What does this fold into?
Amino acid sequence: MREAVAHNLVEIRGLKIGATVFTPGEKPKNVEIVHGVDLNLEKGKVLGLIGESGAGKSTIGLSTLAYGRGGIRITGGEIFINGIDILKNSVGELRDLRGRQVTYVSQSAAAGFNPSKRLMDQVVESCLSHKLCSRKEAEERAVTLFRKLGLPDPENFGKRYPHQVSGGQLQRAMTAMALCPEPDLVIFDEPTTALDVTTQIDVLASIKEAIQDTGVGALYITHDLAVVAQVSDHIMVLQHGRMVEYGTTDQIINNPQKDYTRALVSIRSTIHDETPAKGEPVLKLDNVSARYRGLNFDVVKDVTLEIHPSQTLAVVGESGSGKSTLARVMTGLLPLRQGSVSFNGETLPAALEERSKEQLRELQMIYQMADVAMNPRQTIETIIGRPLEFYFGMQGAEKRARVIELLDEIELGESFLKRYPAELSGGQKQRVCIARALAAKPRLIICDEVTSALDPLVADGILKLLLNLQEIEHVSYLFITHDLATVRAIADTIAVMYQGNVVRYGPKSKVLEPPFDDYTDLLLSSVPEMKLGWLEDVISTRKMDSAGN
Amino acid sequence: MTMRIPVSALIGLTMMAFFFSLAVFAPLIAPYGIGEVVGDVWEPMSAKHWLGTDNIGRDLLTRMIYGARTTIFIASAATVLSFTLGTLLALSAVVLGGWVDMALSRFIDLIMTIPTLIFALVVLSVVPTSILILIVLMGLLDTTRVYRLARAVAVDINVMDYVEAARLRGEGTRWIVLREILPNALSPLVAELGLRFIFMVLFISTLSFLGLGVLPPDTDWGAIVKENKEGLVYGIPAALAPAVAIATLAISVNLVADWVLNRTTSLKGGRNA
It folds into this structure.
């Protein structure tokens, strides 16, 4: 056995990780999910692990704690932390390692904190349980970290409970918790993925600063190459539990060697050219306001929008901006309080129950979570066939032929007829949902964050499919998203929403061209770009603070 | 796909099959007629009378077999009634929502505040007792419990996007209840079915024991306990035969219900795996 190199903080050799999978209707079986990965991390450096879901990046990250989530086992290889093979450690030695030498920041800080304890008690907990210092010292450390991470009122921040601070602040508090015992290595597992785009860059900037100031080594796990490019020194690209490419950040971003890496780097380059609006608008909103029952303010305020035939209107904004509520108003799920919605020139009844079958048919919807948008007990044939049967009275062979035609259009094919949703991957599920919407031959499809739950490459495929289908079927889209890259890729017209108002509305070329209003500027500048030093540039030139602060 | 049935469920299934075939083929299996007096009062077990005779000299085995028939028939019919009605009402209440849900749920709560047995005794002392009345009464009373469970399950399913998608498509209540919600609510309900069936067996036995259930010449297990309970004082075990039968049936149904529940939860993503 070779000895570990002394200056390496982490050295992983030939790591193999196995898991037990439970496929519905089959016996549990053991599979290997990481197939011999080697990895080095020097002290004080940051290594970005990147890949789509199932690439094994989180699993590898957690293995540096000699830990595997339910059903996951480390089956081979060596993991050295500071030259010690932790897989040979006893339980007691592992306890010393975890929370002291190696700490962890998870994706969902909201689920990571105990809601019934004050933040300070949780941040200093590992210091105290490892008897690293007195409570007073630990709290001083915590306050220093709070200040460093840019949290408001650092002296008193720890007195709050988790629900009293925002999501971005909570994620920073979790970073403070990880840094408090002064570890050698911190694992960041998608720390900014669940945050709004404008909040994300603040958290990212403060994490980066904290890493640099404390000189801690870090593994930064994410699926977003543009994000990882801002914080890491080296990047390792993973796919299906194997390393694809490893190099300095500069080399990976500017000179990728492998096709897969190239695809990841160019992910945001699909651009749909804006087409000019023709004909009467398909859907028109006039001064629409709406609120949920029990609220004394409008969630959507005085919105006026138009969607033209074969065009895409993208409604963009952060969570809470009212964009999904707007979709509910259009579908009739939430009757509007003021204004009117007209479709094909005639005014739509406000409530769903009063709309005619024909009006319902022409306005279809695709959801964010394809998993729950399909009945798990129905086959794909039933799911896509139902609108055909319901709207057009198709039966038997005619219906089946049309279902197969639709399956071909979404690039899946006949073999999917008898499958159940659980047997499909995330991207395939979303494709089936698209086919179900298309089956009704609608004039307008509302797409509510349809790509945000998908891996970047898969999402790219879905966007391309939607654009192709628009060419063929001449359908209009209302595209709701928080992701400006998606908007750039697909939109003809853009509406930017902020706190229920449309703050900017017009053709894509106009909306994305300066001069900007403050909010649009913030939103546009917050989209991570695939280039080094982008983060610093943005932070120094922004006009407005994000809502998460 | 090969399915492995665990030993416990296999025992349960065998026992259930035994009881149900007794019930179905009672006239073919029973050695004597149901009301036939064939021996002395409370004769001990013998080759002629496997379980001995009862308080007026009828063959106890014969009485038990016919008793199984009545007990299982009434319990099954009442369970089916309570399940169909309870599930349909609950699912419709959830889908329709608003005041329908409110009115129905509060009405069910109201009925549940009255102890079931007392309610049944009051009704049976007013209306003439017949097997049909018993089934309807027991079924209706148990509907309340099925309703509560089915509603809790359906509320979770009703907020799923696929139900919303069906609504946006313009589907009627019937489709949403039967095609979207029911198939997904079935697994917890099927597991509950076994338990409710056993409560029905106990309920009808209780009523018969109190003399308000099955009337002569028909008999059921509760009635056999009632007829023979005085024997216990003299050390005659005739009343224990139906008691053992009730216990065995209850256990075997539960073994099967446990298995069904485990199997269906693991299908949903392995909570039990």
Observations:
- The first helix of chain A runs from residue 57 to 63.
- The mean pLDDT of chain A is 86.
- Chain A touches chain B through 29 residues (CB under 8 Å).
- Chain A has two domains: 8-269, 283-377+441-513.
